[in-house]
């Protein structure tokens, strides 16, 4: 007897280089996704109800099966198909014309096809007349595309409301958009989180979260419930957890949820950075932000290759990044990956040396390695400043690098080791001070004098 197959609902959206498909099957198991350039054969079972689902799609144009991927989620199968040729939007998904009942546009992910020239008009729309220099606003493609504003009333008196607005961002829920030009180093916003939960062995406690949520005031609770819910129609009992997962700001040993800062969207080339100071989060502009531009942070470490970033974002945040770095062509993207890996590897070597010296202060070891380590540090700073500039992670890292050069310079002086091209320890303290100002951190807070003592 042949199996009876059900047809699942399929939602789709596209970008110039991608097709997003969501196949709505809860608890899918034994998934088969046979991707060919012009077709997709999908089959699965379900764990609980033992139903069988099948759908076959013949595409209007070609996809690249090699670059296409999928992930099985609790309530759907998420696919990201790479178009064979990047270009204008496909007129429809399927080769055949006419409607099929199981296929719908995924409006949550949908974003209109826009050429780069078309974008300033959009920006003008959200920036309104009170904003200067609107026509000069260089919004990067794929980032910060905004639609009609829904202004959010923020009761938090710490809010520098004049600097930004919370608006609907096409395909991304709500986001934060600058309403005036913001200089690098500006503290854009300071916020006390709605609540913070601590991890226990890397896991959070649902009981603790529920206790924290039930302790919120009515206003705070309304702010929490208004945050982005990736699956608003799913199980209401799990809503707290979904909201926490989708909106938490990570930190060592715990996470927080903020009414405003949890709205920040991601870019691998962010223009802002948050730092926790005591019980508050400080959002700083790490480069100049122009009026109308979306304020973006990096959800993940800076020194990841494109495929590592894709995997981490898909796994942890269920989306694919289309920022300007992730949209580089293949050659530029590969070159970018090489630089990131280089900084990451060299930084590790420098850290190891640093730790070793801190721990043992072994003069023989220092004499043997210091000059080479200084050269590696120079090379990392060169990549950070000249090739990958404006990366939040790099600024922090640069800060570390300058701190290290400060220490290495002191060490070289003390031990009379010849270090070509190295400047005085004071010079690197100045550079450190400058980099601190980029991310709104006061120099005095972070400044530590050279910690090495030579035995
Ligand atoms: Zn990206």
- Total strands: the figure is 20
Biggest beta-sheet profile? 5 strands, mixed
Shape: globular
Bound molecules: zinc ion
* Cα-to-Cα separation, first versus last residue: 82 Å
How many DSSP helices? 10
Order of helices and strands: EEEEEEEEEHEEEEEHHHEEEEEEHHHHHH
Mean pLDDT level: 80
- Strand content is 15-25%
| Residue windows where pLDDT falls under 50 for at least 5 positions | 115-159
State the strand order across the main sheet.
7-8-3-2-9
Helical amount: 25-40%
Report Rg.
25 Å
Structural class: alpha+beta
What report would you give on this structure?
The protein is of the alpha+beta class and 455 residues long. The protein has helices at 119-127, 206-214, 218-225, 239-247, 306-317, 330-360, 363-387, 392-415, 425-438, 443-446, and strands at 5-6, 9-14, 18-24, 28-36, 39-46, 52-58, 63-72, 77-83, 103-105, 164-169, 173-178, 187-191, 195-200, 203-204, 248-251, 254-257, 265-266, 272-277, 280-285, 296-297. Helix 7 (363-387) runs antiparallel to helix 8 (392-415). The longest helix is centred in the C-terminal third of the chain and has 31 residues, at 330-360. The chain is globular. Bound molecules: zinc ion.
């Amino acid at each position: 007897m042949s199996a009876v197959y059900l047809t699942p609902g399929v939602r789709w959206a596209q970008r110039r280089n991608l097709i997003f498909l969501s196949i709505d099957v809860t608890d899918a198991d034994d998934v088969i996704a046979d991707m060919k350039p012009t077709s997709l054969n999908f089959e699965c079972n379900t764990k609980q109800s033992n139903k069988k689902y099948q759908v076959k799609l013949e595409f209007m144009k070609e996809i690249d099966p090699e670059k296409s991927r999928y992930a099985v989620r609790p309530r759907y199968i998420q696919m990201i198909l790479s178009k064979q040729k990047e270009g204008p939007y496909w007129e429809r998904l399927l080769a055949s014309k006419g409607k099929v009942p199981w296929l719908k546009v995924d409006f949550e992910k949908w974003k209109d096809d826009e050429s780069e020239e078309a974008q300033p008009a959009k920006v003008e729309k959200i920036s309104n007349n009170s904003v200067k220099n609107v026509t000069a606003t260089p919004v990067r493609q794929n980032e910060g595309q905004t639609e009609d504003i829904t202004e959010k009333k923020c009761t938090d008196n710490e809010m520098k409301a004049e600097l930004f607005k919370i608006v609907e961002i096409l395909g991304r829920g709500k986001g934060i958009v600058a309403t005036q030009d913001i200089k690098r180093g500006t503290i854009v916003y300071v916020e006390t989180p709605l609540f913070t939960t601590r991890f226990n062995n890397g896991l959070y406690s649902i009981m603790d979260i529920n206790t924290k949520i039930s302790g919120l005031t009515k206003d705070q609770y309304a702010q929490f419930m208004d945050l982005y819910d990736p699956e608003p129609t799913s199980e209401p009992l799990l809503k707290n957890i979904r909201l926490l997962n989708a909106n938490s700001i990570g930190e060592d040993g715990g996470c927080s949820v903020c009414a405003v800062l949890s709205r920040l969207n991601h870019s691998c080339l962010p223009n802002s950075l948050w730092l926790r100071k005591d019980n508050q989060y400080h959002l700083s502009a790490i480069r100049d932000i122009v009026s109308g531009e979306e304020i973006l942070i990096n959800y993940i470490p800076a020194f990841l290759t494109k495929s590592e970033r894709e995997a981490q974002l898909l796994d942890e945040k269920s989306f694919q990044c289309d920022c300007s770095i992730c949209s580089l062509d293949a050659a530029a993207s590969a070159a970018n990956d090489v630089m990131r890996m280089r900084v990451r590897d060299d930084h590790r070597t420098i850290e190891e040396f640093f730790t070793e010296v801190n721990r043992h202060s072994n003069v023989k070891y220092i004499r043997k390695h210091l000059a080479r380590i200084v050269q590696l540090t120079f090379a990392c700073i060169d990549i950070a400043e000249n090739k990958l500039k404006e990366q939040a992670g790099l600024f922090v890292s640069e800060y570390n690098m300058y701190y290290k050069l400060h220490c290495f310079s002191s060490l070289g002086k003390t031990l009379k080791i010849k270090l070509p091209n190295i400047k005085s320890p004071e010079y690197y303290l100045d550079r450190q001070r400058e980099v601190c100002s980029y991310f709104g951190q006061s120099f005095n807070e972070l400044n530590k004098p050279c910690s090495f003592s030579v035995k």
